Amino acid sequence: MGKYTEQAKLAAVQDYCSGSADLRDVAHRHNVDFSSLRQWVAAYQVHGVAGLKEKTLQRYSNDFNCLF
Description:
This protein is mainly alpha-helical. The chain is built from 4 helices and no strands.
């Protein structure tokens, strides 16, 4: 599980997209890292809400790893 929930990410992104403040001010207001917010905004602009969902890691068996 990530450090921030999908709802927290969405709230911060929507706050920034409202145009009321710049990226640094919104990041400070939501107590998140500036670079994280910048990545969330970019993902949201490309993929919408789906871009804010937590990514799952692909796991492979040891047999697969030995093929390479």
